[in-house]
Amino acid sequence: MVESNNLLASKVAELLQDEDTKQWLVTLGSESSKINYKKHLAEYLLNHNITIAQLIENFKQNEAQEAKNLQAFVNQMLEKLAPSSVANYVAAVKSRFFRE
Asked: N or C: the chain end with fewer CB closer than 10 Å?
């Protein structure tokens, strides 16, 4: 679990190096959204072993395929989390997609 937390913290730090992602975080309404969305987005990136730049590029090149990737992630997360929790992951990733 500690290794997982270190990986997540590292991915969040990587996200905060991206200027567009920092601007996206500023636009989020509440402090809890700012905290949770960046963690949820980082988990998605870790799951797919990609950077935020790769995610945005993938989305721009093939929105349908990235939607399938998100659905696969949702299915995986539903095995261990409640649907309402998984919805927060989806909201975070989709929010970042459409920031572009």
From this structure: N
